[in-house]
Amino acid sequence: MNRVFSGIQPTGNIHLGNYLGALRQFVELQETEECVYCIVDMHAITVPKPAEQLRESILDVAALYLAVGIDPEKSIVFVQSDVGSHAELSWILTCSSYTGELSRMTQYKQKSKNQESAPTGLFMYPVLMAADILLYDTNVVPVGDDQKQHIELTRDLAIRVNGKYGEDTFVVPEGRFMKSGARIMGLDDPTSKMSKSAENEYSRIQLLDAPSKIKKSVMRATTDNVGAINYDPENQPGITNLINIYSAFTDHDPQEIVAKYQGEGYGTFKKDLVEILTDNLAPIREKYEKIRHSDELTSILKDGAQRADAIAQKTMERVKKNFGLGIR
């Protein structure tokens, strides 16, 4: 059985892009693989935020993990900073990385805006991500396409260390990238992916949105002047994006959806999509409300941290031995 690791930052309400591209994969994988799922709070502080806000966001995301169907009996669910080995291994990997390869990271360039001086955390973010993955002898990492470069760096670091310190030091992981059809774009700008940080609140649908907010977001979604429902990413990206969302929640092929709505206007299609989303997201919202402020949530996270730490300690013993660290 393969071991799977992945994590999500506690940076607010999770939207459809996160859910379809990552969380739904997490739920599927726990049925066949050994899964370790983390709330990566140490990554979140690359952009400083108030302590109480971060703590609340950690619990928000943890509750959403459970609400979408991640089962703590089948998967390990924990908070990154509760396992100290993440930071420890990150430093060890830092000493095997190079500034040149880190400076080439696309996300670093984007977030630092190519400024002469930028927060060091943004620069070192990929090394911490590599530590997160390698700490658990991970075989498979389910991530979005935008993380391919980070997975490649993780593999490079693992291979580099194995060649220098022993082939048994790290398991070299493989990326499991989301299907192209699951790439959800902004409702106001279908040329850019859906984002939590977008200024327009109606550019996204979040898992905890009320039915009224879902309706407004869908009905305001950008379409085009063609007036016909076609699956045409190049010429009709707006309606194509909505078809992708419809398809993801109904398992209907996009062309089946197009055939169903031939001769119909965008209004009819959008009204049906509102109903589909409202029906599918209601159970998630209900389960979230039930568990978010319960003692069960904190108990699950504490138990998950203990289980994760047990795996991490075995890895660190092997890594330290191979590097010659400590007194044995």
Primary descriptors:
13 helices, 2 domains, 5 strands, globular, two-stranded parallel sheet, Rossmann fold, Tyrosyl-Transfer RNA Synthetase, 3-stranded parallel sheet, mainly alpha
Q: Which structural class matches the secondary elements? A: mainly alpha
The name of the CATH architecture of the largest domain is 3-Layer(aba) Sandwich
What is the succession of H and E elements? EHEHHEHHHHEHEHHHHH
- Count, helices: 13
Kindly report the CATH topology of the largest domain.
Rossmann fold
CATH class of the largest domain: Alpha Beta
Contiguous low-pLDDT stretches (5 residues minimum) are none
Task: Characterize the overall form.
Answer: globular
User: How would you characterize the largest beta sheet?
Assistant: 3 strands, parallel
For the residues shown, what is the average pLDDT?
93
List the strand order in the largest sheet: 1-2-3
Q: How many distinct beta strands?
A: 5
CATH homologous group name of the largest domain = HUPs
Helix content: 40-55%
- Beta content comes to 5-15%
Terminal Cα separation, in Å?
A: 32 Å
Radius of gyration: 21 Å
Provide the domain count.
Answer: 2
